[in-house]
Amino acid sequence: MIPGLLLTNRLIQLMRKSIPKLLTILSFLILVTCGNSEKENHQSKDLMLSDSSDIKLEQIDSNLGDPSKGKRLFLQCRACHSLKRKEPHKIGPNLYNFFGRKAGSQKKYKYSSQLTESGIMWDYENLDQWLENPQALIPENKMVYVGMRNPQDREDLIAYLLKETQ
Known about the structure:
two-stranded antiparallel sheet, 166 residues, mainly alpha
């Protein structure tokens, strides 16, 4: 093989691996410099889960993870997602009241056909798998995110999302 061609192939492979990580880092840096103007919302209302069982927010704190740690983890998500009712969609959809709903069902957001046709419901297990590796759960979806490998981080982020999107 020609040395220059070998170098080009290695460079292409390196770029394929590095670009998603660089985008995540860039998004994080943008978020850190923007700050967060939202007030924290600490309401003690009930959440309805997809299996119709009630869970109090206090139980989420102890059973699913630490929402305060999840808030910090959400920094890497907020460039693309909003959480509060009537906030606009960003690059990704607004996540208000998504838990227990069918994936790809938010109005006025154009989802990939792979996501809307997946038929999955956003329950704990599907959300955990999605956060770990969105492309493994639903191949060829349009979410540009490499995933969160640490299970405890996913639990903390899910606890925060449940608390903030209800």
